Amino acid sequence: MTDELEQRHAAIDWEYASAPESRAIVQFRDRYGLVIGGEEVEPASGQWFTTASPATEEPLAEVAQGGPEDVARAVSAARSAFEGWSALRPAERSKYLFRIARILQERSRELAVAESLDGGKPIKESRDVDLPLAAAHFFYHAGWADKLEYAFPNRTPRPLGVAAQIIPWNFPLLMLAWKVAPALACGNTVVLKPAETTPLTALMFADVCRQAELPAGVVNIVTGDGETGQALVQHPDIDKLAFTGSTEVGKAIQRELAGRGVPHTLELGGKAANIVFDDAALDQAVEGIVNGIYFNQGHVCCAGSRLLVQESIAETVVGKLKRRLSTLRVGDPLDKNTDVGAINSKAQLDRIRELVASGEEEGAELYQAPCDLPEQGYWFPPTVFTNVAQSYRIAQEEIFGPVLSVMTFRTPAEALEKANNTAYGLSAGVWTEKGSRILWMAERLRAGVVWANTFNRFDPASPFGGYKESGFGREGGRHGLEAYLRFDG
Amino acid sequence: MDYASAMTQTPTIPRDAEPFSPRLGRVGAVDAVALEARAADLAKRSIKRESKLQALELIVRMTDLTTLEGADTPGKVAALCAKAMRPDPVDLSVPAVAAVCVYPTLIEPAKARLGSSGVRIASVATGFPSGQYPLPLRVADARAAAELGADEIDMVIDRGAFLSGRYGEVYDQIVQVRDAIGGAHLKVILETGELGTYDNVRRASLLAMAAGADFIKTSTGKISPAATLPVALCMLEAIRDVHLETGRMVGMKPAGGIRTSKQAIQHLCVVNETVGPGWLTPDLFRFGASSLLNDVLMQIRTQKTGVYESPDHFTID
Q: To which H or E segment does residue B101 belong?
C-alpha cells in the first residue's frame, strides 16, 4: 500500500475535546442570608461560612450560619403564614406549585450549573436527572393540591401545620422538591434546612418562590450545620419533621422527638443488593450495575452498592464490568462528557478512604479503573471489590461513594437471603429474563423499592422509602401525601 | 459444519476452526429498555473542536458511498465514483471514501472509473434486497459479482428462514456465499428492521459471525427502521463478545437512515465506548450512506473556516 492509502485506512487516536457547560449563566452573590418571612435576613449570630466547589476547592459564596434564634424566627414566620396558606382555595395552591415547576424548568440550566458547581456532580446528571425530576415533583403535587379528598376517599385530609425539613447534600434541589412540593400541596408551610456543603440551590430556590409570588413565610430557608438542624428538630412549635440523611443522625432525631407527638418521616441509609441471575441480559445488567453504584459518585442512599451475581456467570460479569469501568470519564463536573464527578466533601472522601482501606485489610481484592484524577479537589476513582465476604465492613456498612462490593450466590433462595441480610432495606435490583422470578424476588425482598432490569429510576408518582434502618414513611405518590396530612374523623 | 454443531459453538468458534469441545452456546438476552437507554446516553456525548474534525474526516474515510436504484446507469455511477475519489474539489485535504456500493451490473463501469484510486467496489448480491430467490441463484449472484471485480460483497440473509426458526439454513447459506466469492470481503446484511427484536438482532449477528462474516451490516436501506443507534449498539456488543472470546475482529456497517454528521458522530461514540478505539478505522467500520457525505463535507468546511456555506457549494451527484 502507498503511504496515502495507508493513511486512509489508519485508525484514529480519538480523545474527546473538553466540552464544558458555560458557568456564565450563574452569578453567585458574595453572601447569602437566611430567607425568613419572604425576606433575606442576617443570622443572629453574625456568623457566616463558606461553601466551596468540591471539584476545585474554589470558594463560591458565604452563607449564613443559622442558630436557635434564627430557627425560632423562621418557625414563627412559617406559623404566621400557615393560616393564610392553609385557608387558600386548593386550586390556588395548585397554581403556585405549577408556577414553581415552570420556573424551575425555565431556569433549569442555571440551577443545573449551580448544582454541579456546589455539589460536584456531573452536569449531565444535574441537567438530565436532578432538574427534570425536581420540576416533575412540583408538577405532580400541583395536580394533587385540589384533589386530596380523592386521594383519601371517605377521610377528611387537613394540613399538619409547620413542616420542618432537613435535606442532604447528594441531591440538594431534588430532595428539596421531594419535601417542599408535597408539604405545600397539602397546605403546610415549611422551614427547610439545606445541607451545609450544598446550600446554594436552596437559596436560589427562594428566588424561584419570589418569582412565583409565593406568599411570604410559606417557604423559609435556614442554612447552617448540624447544630442548626438540631435547633430545628428541638423547636417546640414544629408540627412535622421530615429528614433525609444518615441513619446515625436519623436515630438521634428519633430520640429527640420521642414523646413529643411530632409526626416524622426518615429516609436514611442503604446497602442495596443488585442481584444478577445467569439468564439476565448481561450487557444491560452491567449498565445497571454501573448506573447503580457510580451514578452521582455513589452518593445515593439507594445505590446498588452490593452486587450479588450468580456464581456461574460471575467471571463474565466482573470481566465486562471492569472493561466498562475503563470507559467511565472521571473529572470536571461541568464537562458535558463527564460520567463521574467529584466527591462532595473532604469529610466524605476521608470516610470512603477509610472504608476502602478496611476492605483491603480484610482481604477483598481491589480493582480501580485507570484514570487521571485532578490534583485539586476531592476525587475517588470508580472502585470494585471482589472476593468480598458477607462479614466484611464493605459488605455491611454504607460507604456512600463509588465503591462496589461483589459477592456471589448459587440459588435464588441464597440470593434472597444475602440480599436481606443487612440492617438496611431501601432498595434492591433484580436482573433476569424470567418474569416469575422477578415477582418471586420482589415479594420477598425487604426493600422499599425493587427495580427489575433497571436501577435508580425515579418518578414522583412512585412512593420511595425504607425498611428497617433505612427509615420509615414514604415520599412520592399518594403515600407521600399522607405524611403531610392529618385526618378528621 | 452442520446446524447443530454450528449453533453449539456460537458465538465463540470462528468458521473452519477445530471445535474445542461441544458445549451449550450462550447467545444471551438483550433488554430493549436498557439497551435503548444506554444508546441514548451515548448519543449525548458532546464532540467539539479538534475531536470533531478528526471524527468528520474519519467518517469520510469510512463511507461506502451508495446508489442502489433501479434507475442507476453507468453515467450516474461514474459521477458517484468521481465524488468518491475526490469528495470536496475545493479542499483536496479531504480524503477519498472507502468504497462505492452498487448493484452487480454497475461494477464494471465503477471499476473503469475508480481505477487504481484505492476506492473499493462493494456490490450488493444474493437477491438483494429481499433475498427471496432460490439459493443457487443467490449464490450465483454473489459469485458473479465477485468475478466482475467487486472487492466486497454485501449479501442479505434469508429473513424468511431466520424468522421461521431455520437458523441452520441461514448459517449454511452464508457459508455457501462465503465459499463462492473467493477472497472478496463479505458483509452480511441482517435487515434488522425486519427482525423485530434486539434478541433476534443479537442472534443473527452471532450467527453471521460464526458463519464467517467479515462485516455485519444493519440494513439494505430499503426497509425502515434501518440503522438506529440501539441496533448498532446491540450488534457491536455481539462483535465485542466474539472478539473477547476469540480475538477475532469483525467489522460493522450501519446503513440506511444516517443522514447527518451528528448521527454519524453518535455512532462513532458508540463504537469507541463499546468495542474500543481499535474499531475506529475503515477496515472495521463503515457507513452505508448517500446523502450523509455532503453534510459531513459541509461540517468539515465549517470547522475549518468557522462559517456555514450554502448546500449549493457541495455537489449533488
A: strand B99-102
